[in-house]
C-alpha cells in the first residue's frame, strides 16, 4: 500500500497514489471503511478520501454499491452535492476522493442541537437544489437520511453517499436498498417507484425535527413496513410544538403521504419549491451562497470521535471471493491531483 500505480496493473490508471496525499485525520466511518481529511502535497488542496479495504468487501452487494457510487459520481457535478475529484486503487484498498466539507453531518448535529424551523427550512431548500439536479440526470438517490447530509463551515447542506442510488427506470420494484426509517412506502413494499420517493425522506426529516421521532418506527424493516400499512402518519394541528408554523406541518404532511401520486412533488419538484413555507427564501441568492445560513456549525471537529475512531470489524463469517478484475475501471482521472 502506498506504492504508485504501475500502468495497467489494476485498470487504466495513470500515476496517482496514497503517497501523493498528507493524511490529516479521520473524519468519518462507514461499514466498509473510513473517511480521511487529506491534503494533496503538490497543490495543497484539501479533499476527503473514502478508503475501502478490499478484504472487507464481503459480498457482491457491497462491491456493487462501491462501484455504483464511483460510476454515478463520474457523471455528476453540482454545487449542492459532494462531488468526486478522483479515484484510484492499490493492491489493498480503493480510494475515492471527494469534496471536503467540515461542518459535520445532520445526524451528528441532531444529537447535539435542537433545530429550529428556519434552520430546517434552509436545510430542506438546499437539498431541493441537490435533488432537482440529480433527478435531471435521471438518478434516484434512494438513501436520503441525516447521515448522508453534510454541512460546510457556512451552514449550507450537501447531499452525499450515492452507493444505493440508481438510474430511474419504469420497472424497479426489486430495487429496495435504503434505510427503512426514511424509505418511501412504495420502496419498502417492493413496488415500482420514481423521483417522488426521494421526497418522502424530506418529509421524514421535517417530521423528525418537529416531533422528535420519525413518522413510522420499528425494530426492523418488517415493523416499519407494517406501521406504514396500518395508518397514515400526520401531525395534527393540536400537536404542533411551539416555534413551528402551520406551513411547516402542511408541507411535512404532504411529503409523507403514503400514496406517491398524492405526495407533494408528484407533479414535479416545483410543486415543493413553490410551497408557501419557502416564500421567504431567495433561491437565486441561495444558489450563489449569498444567504447567511440560520445554523452555522461550530469551528472544530463536527463528528463523533468515538464512532470514527472505532476499529472496523475484521471478522467476516462469509466472504465472496474477490479478484483484481472486480475493481477494473475504478480509476477516475482527477481534476487537480495529477497536475
Automatic annotation (TrEMBL):
**Catalytic activity of the protein:** L-threonyl-[protein] + ATP = O-phospho-L-threonyl-[protein] + ADP + H(+); L-seryl-[protein] + ATP = O-phospho-L-seryl-[protein] + ADP + H(+)
Q: What GO biological process, any one, is recorded here?
A: intracellular signal transduction
SMART domains in the cross-refs:
S_TKc (SM00220)
Query: Protein kinase domain: from which residue to which, for each copy?
Result: 21-278
- Keyword annotations from UniProtKB, A to Z: ATP-binding, Kinase, Nucleotide-binding, Serine/threonine-protein kinase, Transferase
- Supply the enzyme class, top level: transferase
Q: Which PROSITE patterns match?
A: AGC_KINASE_CTER, PROTEIN_KINASE_DOM, PROTEIN_KINASE_ST
- So what EC number does this one have? 2.7.11.1
The source's superkingdom equals: Eukaryota
GO molecular function of the protein, one example?
protein serine/threonine kinase activity
Q: Domain AGC-kinase C-terminal, which positions? A: 279-339
Q: Is ATP-binding set as a keyword in this record? A: yes
Q: Which PANTHER family match?
A: PROTEIN KINASE DOMAIN-CONTAINING PROTEIN (PTHR24356:SF374), SERINE/THREONINE-PROTEIN KINASE (PTHR24356)
- The protein, known as: non-specific serine/threonine protein kinase
What organism is the protein native to? Stentor coeruleus
